[in-house]
Amino acid sequence: MSQPLFNKVAFIGLGxxxxxxxxxxxxxxxxxxxxxxxxxxxxxxxxxxxxIISEGYSNPVDAVKDSDLIVLALPVRATQKILETIQxxxxxxxxxxxxxxxxxxxxxxxxxxYGAELPIGFVPGHPIAGAEHTGVHAGxxxxxxxxxxxLTPLPTSAPWAVEKLIRLWQAAKAEVIxxxxxxxxxxxxHTSHLPHLMAFNLVEQLANREDNLDIFRYAAGGFxxxxxxxxxxxxxxxxxxxxxxxxxxxxxxxFEQQLAQIRHLIETEDSNALxxxxxxxxxxxxxxxxxxxxxxLMEKNNVTQQFTIQPGPKSFQGKFSVPGDKSVSHRSIxxxxxxxxxxxxxxxxxxxxxxxxxxxxxxMGVNIEGPKNGEVTIHGVGMHGLKAPKGELYMGNxxxxxxxxxxxxxxxxxxxxxxxxxxxxxxxxxxxxxxLRQMGAQIQTTGERGTPPVSITGNQNLQGIHYDLPMAxxxxxxxxxxxxxxxxxxxxxxxxxxxxxxSERMLRAFGYEVKTEGNRISLQGGxxxxxxxxxxxSDISSAAFFMVGAAITEGSDVTLxxxxxxxxxxxxxxxxxxxxxDLSVENERIAGGEPIADIRIKGSRTLKGIHxxxxxxxxxxxxxxxxxxxxACAEGQTILTGAAELRVxxxxxxxxxxDGLKIMGIDCxxxxxxxxxxxxxxxxxxxAIFNGGxxxxxxxxRIAMSFSMAGLRTSGEIKIVxxxxxxxxxxxxxxxxxxxxxxxxxxxx
Length: 749
Ligand code: S3P
What we know:
NAD; Enolpyruvate_Tfrase_dom; tyrosine biosynthesis; amino-acid biosynthesis
């Protein structure tokens, strides 16, 4: 058996937090011995009886002797006295940490005892966890699970000491974050201390009114929600407010300013600005809901949801409107924001990716109303009206947001940083950074391998360039053209194959001249965009799952209404037709500058395997995961080549699909730039094709939705793990699937 992490751990104080951590150390076998010192003899006796400690001492000096980890788990104000007492009795390399909710004053207390040079083992910490009850009996081994623990290593702290503490808290299943002391106190002042102060203050304001009884009697849910935390321990908050005085006063100043602003807007009846402020706050709350919620949605590496589909005969029927096009939705916000005048958008995709773009522009000072039932109104600020965001711009799962914004942000008068979730953090950003640098942009990809975060120093002197795109990427093309809007002279790109042209079309709709000559697209910098109305068509990429579902299910008949059929997006229709699908494009019309149609598809004949045409690859680039499911159900072999780009999507879609297909009993061989799939279909037979099994989505919405469709032809249960990202592009996916006849059970992990 490996050596435990620590030899002897001494707790000074053993309340809820201390005794919970002690329980973790026992459960995970992290120390040979645990002792404690508290003022209460009863606590020590109880702790011994509970088996939490082997020895208890009233004098802390006895506890810390020979201990290699000392945890100060008592009120912060006692820190200095305890450190003075134990100072000359501890091992030279002992790790000393604490669990207090303010950190500046803990470090100050340490300096008061040790002078300038603090012990190398001293690493303050703050587990952000609590419970209704306190005391040694209230401790629980899972108190810290899925909670954050902030460590604030000091310049004097030894890396090995920090490392060991990280391992300790990770063993408690906490998410460990390191930040500096000032940052910690500032963050906590805003996110915890200020809200508590406001809750106490509001209750006090109402309690002081003569009619307070009436007010409390009639107060509804809003008051209850807001004031809940004013029922916390006054002594504790009194101590915290003093302990973190400087940062809290700053936070209060910020609050007063903000309050004055909203007061002014109400007083002057500035309806537009008030709507902007309230809408911004509401959206910020919704956008960051995943961070505030107990079960984070898009947070790094967190898998929070799974789909389960049971075997059994299924039908797949109906008429559906899938949500708005993701690519068009992103661009409607971006272009509306930098246009002059107002832009109205209908059919906007209220998925997390497009909302990340929307939030980014709100963070840059653009007043955006909605989205409400797919309607968004953007009050454009013009080409030079974007403002510096106050913090990092969080792009979630969205590569389109990050690459297109790279171009726009490179040309601004301010600096910016863009970050993303686990999937986006692995995606290549040099493909856009490189051409932008040729234009004079100062852009760094600060991740390990040319990956996010992307850090940009704004430069208002970009030069137009010509760029030969080495890969067929609409995102890179668009990012360069967008930078070109602000650049000197002409910016042009040639693409190796035509890719989606939504940027070109929409720029024209905003009155900006864009030339397309064969594979060469160009524009002149220095023009302006004029606000307009944008009607976002339904997303053919979302419709594709239902098209495949219908194509592989006997007797199915599905119509997808008002789907965008821009010719740069219709590869999936062409490929399914070549595979023999019974598919018709009906009622073609133009809406908002984009062609749309109803797509009807029936499960009337078995698909056949084909060599997928390479010229269709960029036109169906997002639909291949779904098409692989179709290929597995086809008769004969399907070969895909020329699709290496699939390896750098939200996941490596060739490998991840191949892994999943194999688990489900499909014979397939991934290649560098495609895949070979041995279809199991037989003409006229509609029985099960897939065995079922557990699939890992790798934070990729399209992987999750594609394998869901396999549920229409499975003999065993299909479990798809990590389906939370489906909300990035198709928030209504499971509801519409259910309506069509495919029951997907959604469970939160
Ligand atoms: C998109 C372009 C494509 C596509 C993505 C959306 C766009 O990416 O896969 O889902 O909106 O421009 P690439 O440019 O990387 O091919």
